[in-house]
Amino acid sequence: MADLKVDLTAPNGKKITLPTGLFINNEFVKSSSGDKITSINPTDESEICSVEAASADDIDKAVKAARAAFNDPSWRDLPATDRGALMYKFADLLEAHRETLATLETWDNGKPYSVAFNDDMGEVIGTLKYYAGWADKIHGETIPSTAQKFAYTLKQPIGVCAQIIPWNYPLAMAAWKLGPALACGNTIVLKPAEQTPVSILYLASLIPEVFPPGVINIVNGHGRVAGHALAAHMDVDKIAFTGSTFTGKQIMKTASINMKNITLETGGKSPLLVFDDADLEQAAKWAHIGIMSNQGQICTATSRVIVQEGIYDKFVEIFKKVVQETSKVGDPFHDDTFQGPQVTKAQYERVLSYIESGKSEGATLVSGGVPHKNVGDGKGFFVEPTIFTQVKEDMKIYREEIFGPFVVVASFKDEAEAIHMANDTTYGLGSAVFTSNIERAHRVAARIEAGMVWINSSNDSDFRIPFGGVKQSGIGRELGEAGLAAYSQTKAVHVNLGLRL
Ligand SMILES: NC(=O)c1ccc[n+]([C@@H]2O[C@H](COP(=O)([O-])OP(=O)(O)OC[C@H]3O[C@@H](n4cnc5c(N)ncnc54)[C@H](O)[C@@H]3O)[C@@H](O)[C@H]2O)c1
To answer: Active site at which residues (predicted)?
Structure first.
């Protein structure tokens, strides 16, 4: 449809024709309700464009398309090696459009262009290729039983998978979800976050060059309408979600209607422990990466730095210097920018409200704590990277996920207290331990209640290694071989070799 695209000129001068429709059955279509989402540039608060937003009826159409594709021999019976080849082809196509995709990601989300181009697009392409390689290596087992029985298992796809993703890594989160689902032979309805609807539409426009109609459907829409309709749909077999713990719990409840298979990756308040035998310069640099990257909008952000008493003051001094010297806030299209704007006004205001909370609860503000107004004409959702020290365990800023360039620094006496403080949270996603004592490093790693522990690093994620949380940080694993378990099911086949009744 001619009117379902828009010609754009990005802030870096790149000209892009962007489809704006709902991507269903390899076509862009209008929303049946006429509902739209307006995408805002967080750097200057200008409007980028409006895109179609799905109604429950549109979600039903997308699910029907995915079901038809799942049952179609062109997908169902495609040899797994050929399925992998399609995934490689798609990854190559994304590589060819890397600049455009990274441009849209930066424009819509606010992350620095160098990060979008190198890190996020590297993750997208790497993850898809990694899972392309798995496609023909997913197989069952033969199981010894009795002389009269032959038993084996089949690994089969789950069916129609709904995937609901957040705004902090729009393209990378899509790749984390699409990769294992496609490798296992499922079909997909993916709903991006309403805050970042743009880059994924460009990705969708490349799908018809590779995949049969209905295999991947991408429907922008609001959480409470389109997201809810996916969770509630009786013909969706699986739901995978990344976002807030609050929404994860709602989805769990809604998805129980037909007992959907479920994977959740939700919030965190991840600890980073610094023992007095650690390399303090390295600990400070990794602590900076662990919380200030991606504008602090990382589910595994090591947002609670907990330092042994004897080195507390020295660590704070080094850490403050690293943050102030490295976290250059600015226009995300400038080469020297480390930190762009928060994704939306709501997130910006949320971070500022936690700054007020930290001050009123009596923590000590040692850096930042104010909006950053030196970009362009002073508009945009920029916050100075913020450090609070002398933080107590009952303070809101110590306990709640903030999702911004905001870190608290607390202290511990000994190893037992460090472990207690690390685990004193409802979350259990990431964690980090800095020590030069190899025995302590592994002892503490085993005791921390978290899905991931980094020893002497932080947020060093890797698509070959399982990712996910415990406690209220999620259910199931993404990435690595473990990520395949979320998208396949095991069928046991019993063969009678002569048992007569
Ligand atoms: N773990 C993460 O990676 C992650 C990512 C984004 C946000 N968050 C946390 O969540 C907070 C709020 O952010 P948010 O409001 O964008 O997150 P959210 O959980 O509301 O949104 C994430 C996704 O869920 C969808 N959604 C929302 N309500 C839904 C519902 N009832 N049913 C189905 N889908 C629904 C949204 O449309 C979006 O695609 C952040 O400040 C941060 O603390 C965490």
So the answer is: 265
